[in-house]
Structure formats: C-alpha cells, structure tokens
Amino acid sequence: MKLRIIYTFFLFLFGCFLLMSHSDGRASNNNEGNTGAPNDNNSSNNRTCQNCHNSGSFVVTPELSITDSGGGAISGNYIPGEVYTVKLTVNSDGAPAGYGFQMVALNAAENVDGAPINTWAVPASSTNVQLAIPANGRQYAEQNGTSSTNEFIMEWTAPASGDVTFYYGGNAVNGNGLNSLDNAIMGSTSLSPDPTSINELEKSLSLNIFPNPVSEVMSLQTNAQDSDNYDLFIYDQNGRQVLNQKINIPSGENISPIDVNNFSSGVYNLIISDGKNQIAKKILKL
C-alpha cells in the first residue's frame, strides 16, 4: 500500500512537471511546433495548441498586427529586407489567469510547406517572449512562461523574395496547472513582396559570404558603387545580437575578414544596413 502511494505521488509530480514545461513554450521545452503550419511536428494530425487547450469557457480571439519602422500597419505586402514589429494580442472574454502563444513564419503560400524564415528577434522590452529552434529547424517565437499580459511583441526581418505565411496560436489559461478549462485559437496571415518596392542598397552594393559553412574566419565579398559606412549586425538563431559594428566598404570589389571563431555552432543572420535598407544573409557556423 505504501509503495502504491509513493508510485502514485511520483506520477503526479511527473505529470505536473510536464504540464509546467508546456507553460514555457513547446518549442523550447518539448521540441516541437504547434502552430498548425504544414509539417509542424511528428503527430499524425499535426497537433496544435488547440488540441490540448480546448475545454474552457473563454472565447479567445487572436489579433495580429505588423507595422513598419514608422509605425504604419502593412496589409498584404512586405518590403524585402525590412524589419517589422509583429504584435500578437490574445483577446479573451472572462478573466483568464494568463496567456500563451506560439508563432512561426514560412517562405511559402498558405497551407504550403516552405523554408522557415528564421529572422525573429526579441526587443529588450518584451520580457514575456522567447525564441527557440527545435529539431525541425524552424524558429518559433513563444511565451516565456505563462504571461500576465495578453500582448506579445517581436521583431522580424522580411526575406528577399517569395510569399510569406505566419502561423500562430494563442491561448488563455485558468491557472490551475493543467490544460483543462483553457481555450486556444489558431490563425494564419499571408504576405507577398511589394511589387513596387526597390531595395536601393542592393542596387549599389552586392554582398557574398564565403566560406559558408564557416568554422573560424568568414570573408565578406563586396562590390560597391561608392565607398560608404555601414552597420553590420549578426544575430544568433535565438535572435540575440552577437555582433554590432560599423564597417567601411570601399568602392569596387573588396574582401573583408570577419572572425567568428568564438561563435557557438548554429545558424546566424548577418545584416548590413545603410540606415534605410538592409541586405541579409544566413551563416552556418560549424
């Protein structure tokens, strides 16, 4: 009898541990996406947030807004290389004890599998958001523990081309430590590149990176119309800035070394900016 009680207590603690880990985001702690994007996880029914959080009385309505650097809302089209502020608001009736979410961006039309756009970053003011890349290689933005506020704010850099679809889920929880009596809702939003947009920086500066993958030192191969100063940023796969420096790129063809020997292995985003436009490249550090 005593052993049975101990065993039951152990199972209870283990179950609580699993449920607590879910509150910190399934990509971070359970190695999978639950956004409803094509092939998001290994489940036969492509499990989403709504599969677990679906028995509560809360009526949940997610609201996604995407704004440019000037604060203007975009609708339907993006400018390649631009950095946008993405805000997901998990609206709910009643009085939930907290909120959660998960979001991913794919370089494809809606309901079509595509390459992940792993250019998310977390502003310093967003203490309730974290980034994670599970085994599927997609970068997810998700809650950093159960959030007391229903607003989640991220930064995201648009790709050079192609359709983009954001997949997301938001949930409202009652705080009982279980997924019962919670509710979630899923959504998606698609964008296309602005056909009238012109990246002026790409007209005056071409950029190539080699070797890529790189282990110690990579080279920036540039061909510029004019000599000018630029901002060079490198972000790791979790959106943390690991390099920020001013560089001068002379006119004509040039090669500049960048030491990445102390970087951890993984995927990085390199961005060169003139203050108005950007050129982004992916780096694989061995």
Question: How are the SSEs placed, and which strands pair?
Answer:
Blueprint: H1 2-23, H2 26-30, H3 49-52, E1 60-67, E2 77-78, E3 83-92, E4 98-107, E5 115-116, E6 120-121, E7 129-132, E8 140-143, E9 151-157, E10 164-173, E11 183-193, H4 200-204, E12 205-210, E13 217-224, E14 228-235, E15 241-249, E16 252-259, E17 266-273, E18 278-285
Parallel strand pairs: 2-11
Antiparallel strand pairs: 1-3, 3-9, 4-5, 4-8, 4-10, 6-9, 7-8, 10-11, 12-13, 13-16, 14-15, 14-17, 17-18
What does this structure look like?
- Strand 14 (228-235) and strand 15 form a beta hairpin.
- The longest helix is centred in the N-terminal third of the chain and has 22 residues, at 2-23.
- The protein has helices at residues 2-23, 26-30, 49-52, 200-204, and strands at residues 60-67, 77-78, 83-92, 98-107, 115-116, 120-121, 129-132, 140-143, 151-157, 164-173, 183-193, 205-210, 217-224, 228-235, 241-249, 252-259, 266-273, 278-285.
- It is mainly beta.
- It folds into two domains: 2-193, Immunoglobulin-like; 200-285, Sandwich (Immunoglobulin-like).
